[in-house]
Amino acid sequence: MGVRWSEFDPEVQNQNQGAHLIHHIVHSPSAFKALGNGRAAWWDDASGTVVIFDPKNRDLGTAFRPSGGRDYFDNRLK
Q: 44, 68, 75, 78: which has the fewest C-beta neighbours closer than 10 Å?
């Protein structure tokens, strides 16, 4: 996945911890939605993190913490 782990400091110190966070979000999300082109998105309220799976992208997706929080995930930003 295309992730800059420094965005997740201080709770994620390395790739292994990052993988654990993503695994937790995908298996116990606060919200989920299917996106176009085979993509999927998961939201985690506790960490404010979005995980996007994109099977057509070489890195298979991304994870990040949007400044708009849940409103970003729900497409409510204007």
A: 78
